[in-house]
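Build the 3D complex.
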Amino acid sequence: MFSKASRVLGELETRVMDVLWQEHPVSVRTVCDRIGGTLAYTTIMTTLDRLHKKRLLRRHKDGNAFLYEPAMDRAEYQRRVVEAALTPLMEQGAAPVLAAFVEVAADLDEANLAHLERLIASHRRRK
Amino acid sequence: MTAASLAGFALVFVTVAWTLSSLGGLLLSSVRPSLTRLGPLAERRAAEAVAIVPVLLAAVAVATLIAQSAIGVDHCEAHAHHAHLCLAHGAIWVERAWVVVALACFGAAVLTRVALLVTNGVRGARSIAQLRSVSTQAGDVRVVDSDRAFCFVAGVRRPTIYVSTRAWSALSQAERRALVAHESAHVHQGDLRRRIIIEAFLAFAAPLVGDRVRSAWMLATERLCDARAAEAIGEPEAVASAMVSLCRLNASRPATTFGFTPTAQQLAQRVRAVLAGGPLGERAAIVLGRTVSIATLVVVGAIGIAAEPLHHVFETLLG
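Done.
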């Protein structure tokens, strides 16, 4: 399940995911250290918990603390976001926010394409 | 005055808008071959006129009738034999079942179209935002890592060109330039914004007219951008070749469309048109635009002058 919430990450969520895609499994403290700055421990902990609920992270107990790791690598995450974004655009139409260069013609076949390619080639030769 | 007293005026709006848009649709279909010969700008302008003018004239007619009633020009006593188009006695229209049914059908049609437009727009914008977050800027385009072959411009406020890695890597250098030039033409012409305006007006068009006008406008716009791209890069063959290459990449995946599926004949028409390098139709578009504007103003003036007889015509026809 790749939910809508999983597809759009906030700025901090993106930074946290970047840390985890580079290094895992990690504790909340490690993520805090890698991100640096003035962010509170609890802020990072809440963010990690939210990413876990979005099923983008897995976690397991290590003593009293949780260790987190990505549920999928960065490439897989991006592939899923692209597919999830493209599917509604292609299936339901995105009018009026999109204009495609060319779309697959309804009755297009190899003969049509070959004919058009010959036409272009002959035009090039005539030049 | 109650909302019910506006029912008669609403009926006039439907009658005028649907009648004129039907006539406009028929006219557009019959002169389309000539418009195509004149150039894509002329064809596009004609489609825009058919989308916009009927709704404008219907609105002017209704506003005139309402104004006439509001300032008390009309005399209700003389019209006891039919329903009266006035703000004081207009509620009588809703006592007629056919009026209620007609207005309900029209309202449902308009609401459905507007809801679809808004839903698709919002959903599309959300999807585009997601694509943006995982794409990378490469020159003038944002490249999306995908094994689908696509290229489109998206975003109303900030139009951006998106191209998939599959399409980008499969195209030659010249084809890439053609692709970017084509999409840049959409951006410079403000096509996505124009499309929203046209769609908003088409929400009030008669059934079946909207599809015809939309299809004519979209094809003319694509041909216009093809021509502008050919002009910009000086290589019409690259524009034609990019179209065919993208179609070939997608030929095995017929689901890869964006809500509008052209026919092979329309694709061939675009390829032939860009290779032939015909006129853009700038002059014809200007003449057409001026003619339509003048004709519209004349009709608006005529509605103002003949408001009284027009009022009785509508009462007699509909009441």
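Chain B is about 70% helix and 5% strand.
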